[in-house]
Amino acid sequence: MAQEQDTQHALMIPWGHFAQEIGLIPGIEAVKLNQKIYEHTPQAKVIEFFAAILSGVKYLQDISLAAHPLDKDLAVAQAWGQANWADYTGISRTLKQLSWAEARAIVAVLEKVGQPFVQSELNLLRSLKQTLQYDGDLTGLPVSNTSRTYPNAAYGHMSDEIRLGYQAGLVSFQCPTYGRMWLSVEHHAGDTVSCTQAEALVLAAEKRSGQRPKRRTDLLQNRIEDFVKNPRTCRETVIWPAVGIGSRGAGQSRCTCPASDCARNARRKVETRPGAGASLCTSRKGSGNCPEKR
User: Fold this and answer.
1) Residue 290 parent element (H or E)
2) What is the Cα 173 distance to its own chain's centre?
3) Boundaries of domain holding 289
4) Are residues 278 and 241 part of one domain?
5) Which of 209, 242, 263 is the last residue of a domain?
6) Are residues 239 and 189 in the same domain?
7) Strand, helix or coil at 107?
8) Can you tell me the distance from the alpha carbon of 180 to that of 185, in angstroms, rounded to the nearest whole number?
9) How far is residue 100's CA from residue 87's CA, in Å, rounded to a whole number?
10) Is residue 171 a contact partner of residue 208, using CB atoms and an 8 Å limit?
11) Does 114 lie in the same domain as 39?
12) Model's pTM, two decimal places?
């Protein structure tokens, strides 16, 4: 007979069972964390930390000191595959002792669990023949201006104010099912500005989604190699509007200068000599890189 239990975190029950179903909890438990075990394993405390985030906990101490503390809710603990929860102080020590390698291993589990959902939405976009639209920007994460304990925090623009805190580099994409799905997040100091993170946001979006535009850099490399070997034969035909100086209805003139000259001189003037019917392609008045008459 099933035992009835009261809970103040009812939504956490189905989320816990869902976390077990998609492999999140087994994945975290399989990560090797080099820490001592007393009553709770370090993996169990990491799972409790994730559950606390989903429950809306703003500060770590609220896990134990809130009006309805999560660590006293056995029904939620069992739904998340745990016999009971640890105190917030134990979670704090575990998180502080994590190495960067261990943290990256935990992130890898999160990405692996979430990737099928990302791929499902990408496939749906493709079947609907809709474009893939990314959204990448920095979002301020302010902390107390009087705090001295947050590492790498700095003053920066956050919600139209100068605040102490961090900037989170968030990348998402628009999807049919959920409206928006998050792909990645990277924390930076509070004085970081968006223009310095544009490339990183693009690379993060392409890495997580597995999609990238066809930049055709291989074809460009072939063109460069051909030009280096034989620059005289690598000529482009560029049509420029003729400037009719003494030549009515001159139409268009063709520039057959080397491709390197055309690239360096995007705006050219075509001078038509009166009565001669010939034109000269120049980049500056009176002189030019392409002194060919035609």
Assistant:
1) strand 290-293
2) 10
3) 228-293
4) yes
5) 209
6) no
7) helix
8) 14
9) 24
10) yes
11) no
12) 0.68
